[in-house]
Amino acid sequence: MNTMTRFNRLPLMLVALLLSVFTLTAQAAESKEIKQKYNGLTVNANLLMADGKSYQDGMVLLTHGTLTHAGRSTYANLQQLLADRGISSLAINLSLGLDDRHGEYDCKTPHRHRHEDAVGEIGFWLNWLKKQGANDITLMGHSRGGNQTAWFSVEQDDPAVKRVVLIAPATWNYDAEKADYKKKYGQSIEPILAKAEKLVAEGKGDTLIKNINFIYCKDTSATANAVVSYYKNEPRMDTPTLLKDAKKPTLVVIGSADTVVTDLEEKMNGVESEQVTVTVVDGAGHFFRDFFAEDLADNAAEFIKGE
Predict the structure, then answer these.
(1) Which pLDDT belongs to residue 15?
(2) Is the distance from CB of 227 to CB of 205 less than 8 angstroms?
């Protein structure tokens, strides 16, 4: 079985406020952009080293959520909070099929990416960290990035990965996804998926299907490969299902007020694994904003340091 705890920040708020008085004048560490070539594309990531630390002192590899980017305040803030706790990190920008991508994904841009592409990019950046001398690496991911991180950790048992931290990782259910699509867009995904699957079977997976609703984007276009990847019946898109086979010590952090991944706590109750620890932060939403970001960083740091 997994271990589940609840974290309530109210008794700590006064302490946090007092500590902030002494840290307001502290200069924030600056991140450095790293660029590399991967599958013909330039990919980039934000590197933030904690004061006095090297790659050999341990690294976090952080993956963002759906169609967003590493520079979003959620992730930039988390990197800084980890650095404040002596933990260095590399926040990667998933390419999503684009060269040197920055910022939020523009819905006018055709979607040529697949959900599972992130698994390969996580592996690429993991190998980059290892080449820098890192051998104590924590994989960390948020939302969809949490699922992709879990997917990698379960299927790629790399000895340099010592632990995994999943922040509000995505859940998934085939029937629920179809129902959600119909509710959101007023039409069924099934005819679109059937068309995409036919194209893929014919070796035409790169064909663009135009004027469709895709993920968060209305009236956009996506390749058949992309449609099949995001909408097919794929149980590995459900993080609790993956964690039944967890290979690394894994911390799942849940916000009790999360309105995006609403069934995560319930589903995690069904995960029987000694490798998995679950922490519920009372009052936190999906993005762990404001003081809840401190709670998230505290829980992650304690887990990473084995405290």
Answers:
(1) 44
(2) no
